[in-house]
Predict the 3D structure of the following.
Amino acid sequence: MNSMPRILAAACVLQVSVAAPPLRAADDARVTVPAGFTIEVVARVAGARELAAGPGGSLFVGTLHGDVMLLRDAEGSPHAPEVFAHIDEAPDAGVSVGGDSLYVGTRFGVWRIPLASDAARVDGDKAQAPGKPVKIESVRPGNGGGHSTTSLAIAGGRVYAGVGSSCNACTESDPTRATIQEFGLDGGPLHAKAVHIRNAIALAIDPGGALWAGVAGQDELEHGHPYEIFDAVTRHQGVVDYGWPTCYENHRQAAPDADCSHQTVSRVVFPAYSTPIGATFYPAKPAGRYAFPETYAGGAFVTLHGSWHQPPVAPRVIFVPMHDGEPVTPVDWSNPDAQWRLFAGGFQRDDGSRIGRPTGVAVGSEGSLFVADDAAGVIYRIRPVRG
């Protein structure tokens, strides 16, 4: 399924908005998308991480520093990025819109910023949030080391927060670490929906309302393992146990005498060390001026950050075809490439050096796909070619 898209120079043109200088990319390492699509850089945001579509066609950008950025008119002629809010608990990486609020995941908590009166201000001259950020939940109390980003997704009046582990493989003393926490839109009561899940960064809600999580697996196992997982967490009853650090993949043992019989097995897998960072589902009924073809309806886009392993696994954006909330192709435990196809690539040169590493991903109000890149510090906009 992993047919390579054509090189950008042949299939489409890397367009660059006047507000964003062109990427310095070698001819042999150009960003690629499938034929029939265009890609352009629409903004520069240092340390850009998760993305969330906001009111009035805006786009919120979480970052590795203490600022949440706003890109106004993201589907039209984007303005220069502006600081929407500052929270002094960097990284302020996670962003998600729910109801009348923007939720921000930081190193030590989840914050709520009201948006009810903000649509005009998002579209107008000022980007400043109408109300001060209010912390509604705390995570990693007293210890922000290890995996420090907090990813967010919202569905059914519930906030889900992915809180990564403090280590590669250990027994956590902090009950919020290596979990997906669940709580109400105004905070509390806080409890785990998923446990023993090493670093659930890529959270997304599918068209049916289920929470999915893409997870970065542990190191120092047999080379090429564990496969990275992407699973529908809330399709499972109760608290879901993914087995880390003693179990992985299809009930495989990472520790002697580990009991893996109760480990939850994922619906989708990616190659080891790919590091899923962001995910979004394309609408089941695509609409808007830049709606993707029907073949993408209901499917998942996942950004893979790549690895530090040798040889390095390339960063890329992939697409997982779905039907009625399930992957079109079932898991093949002998082939972690079977369920997805490459959508955007070219981030890594043949010598292993990189021009970027994709992170957040979101669908805009008119159907465009937006992709963040924390290494290049840019926001890409991808949309079909219109005749």
